[in-house]
Amino acid sequence: MELPLPPHWDPARVDEVWRVSYEERAAEADAWTREHGIPPAAADGRRVCLLLVDVQNTFCTPGFELFVPGAPDDNRRLCEFLYRNLASITQVAPTLDTHRALQVFHAAWLVDGNGRHPPPYTVVSAEDVESGRWRAADPGEQESLVGYVRALEARGRFRLTVWPYHAMLGGIGHALVSAVEEAVFYHGIARGAAPAFQLKGDDARTEHYSALGPEVGGRRNAALVEHLRSFDEVVVAGQAKSHCVTWTLEDLLDDLPPERITLLEDCTSPVVVPGAVDFATEANEAVARFAARGVRIVRSTGWPAG
């Protein structure tokens, strides 16, 4: 059952930061449920989870630390997808990239021979660390750093990238995009289904692109895996297509059959920083791999598919 967009929805504000009017939205969601005969999520015969990967200000709002070009339009389509399919989405599971200053991918963790920290977007290879071009600022972390960059290359993952300080716990950048937060809140009230928030990325010694586990070592989110297995379909969207969305899908395919996974291709974009990095090619190659393995790749207006 496709629904109309609710009256409060304002696509012009999707790239802004603002306070959600929870009381007002909750009352409106109750009324919307009665007006359109929307059943509670517990009554769903076909259970669908919308897995939102890192739809946070730090990645999605212009002027923030790791802004992904295309994210505001992705989020406009995402919100409209959630509102129109309110009666078909059983639960929303938003992930939150969660960081502190002293982590292996932030500049403070590394120094060169003169004690200077690397600039953002520096790519650090195993050879760089072994030769001493870059080393751990804390000598006690040097052995761990060597093992980490070697393991990344052995696993065929991205080399260690020094990212701008981002998704800082307690900061505005860590929060969901306001328009998406509002849509997720509205859905939870309308369907009687609390969103399943997932924190990721607070292990200081590893990157954590995938929602299901870190790049090297650490603990896999077994509880989330089991939760996602309880759904008939997992629909994936969020940021960025080249990194956190790609590695989440790679890991998800270890636990779910591909026919139960859908990617909203117009609700995700790659990391592109003019003059620094461009991962558009890697993102497109990843999507092609997923399609070849049987993942359904659809536009937000083309769901459900198959």
Q: In words, what does this structure look like?
A:
This protein is globular. It has a six-stranded parallel β-sheet, sandwiched between helices. Helix 1 crosses helix 6 and helix 3 runs parallel beside helix 6. The chain folds into two domains: 229 residues, Isochorismatase-like (Rossmann fold); 55 residues, no CATH class. The longest helix is centred in the first third of the chain and has 15 residues. It has 306 residues and is an alpha/beta fold. The chain starts with 21 loop residues before the first helix and ends in an 8-residue tail after the last strand.
Give a short synopsis of this structure.
This protein has nine helices and twelve strands. The chain has 306 residues and is of the alpha/beta class. It has two domains: 11-101 and 165-302, Isochorismatase-like (Rossmann fold, 3-Layer(aba) Sandwich); 107-161, no CATH class.
Radius of gyration: 20 Å
How many domains comprise the coordinates? 2
Helix-strand category: alpha/beta
Total helical segments: 9
The residue ranges in which pLDDT falls below 50 over 5 or more consecutive positions are: none
Please state roughly what percent of the residues sit in beta strands, choosing from under 5%, 5-15%, 15-25%, 25-35%, 35-45% or over 45%. Answer: 5-15%
Biggest beta sheet attributes: 6 strands, parallel
Order of adjacent strands in the largest pleated sheet: 7-2-1-8-9-12
* CATH topology description of the largest domain: Rossmann fold
Average of the residue pLDDT scores: 96
- The ordered string of helix (H) and strand (E) elements is HEHHEEEHEHEHEHEHEEEHE
The name of the CATH superfamily of the largest domain reads Isochorismatase-like
The count of DSSP E runs of length 2 or more, i.e. the number of strands, is 12
Overall CATH class of the largest domain: Alpha Beta
Helix content: 25-40%
What's the overall geometry? globular
CATH architecture of the largest domain: 3-Layer(aba) Sandwich
The separation of the N and C termini measures 16 Å
